[in-house]
């Protein structure tokens, strides 16, 4: 089962994430937060609130806002063609 083992805020709305398969990547969530359709995440438009996440299997913010580790993995490695089948199986492409 995929999970996040470590994550560090980088800048703007970017987080560097290390997954339990030893892959490390950068996720930019700015578009998701500002243009996404999931209203509870709009409160993270304040970068100071965005920075206040913790890791417990995945990224979690106040009010138990979280994102699936598979989605974060996809966002970190979406350009990696070797992962295309995995992303298709998960429903992201």
From TrEMBL:
Domain of life: Bacteria
SUPFAM superfamilies named among the record's database cross-references: NE0471 N-terminal domain-like
InterPro entries, A to Z: DUF2442, NE0471-like_N
Record's protein name: DUF2442 domain-containing protein
Organism: uncultured Sulfurovum sp
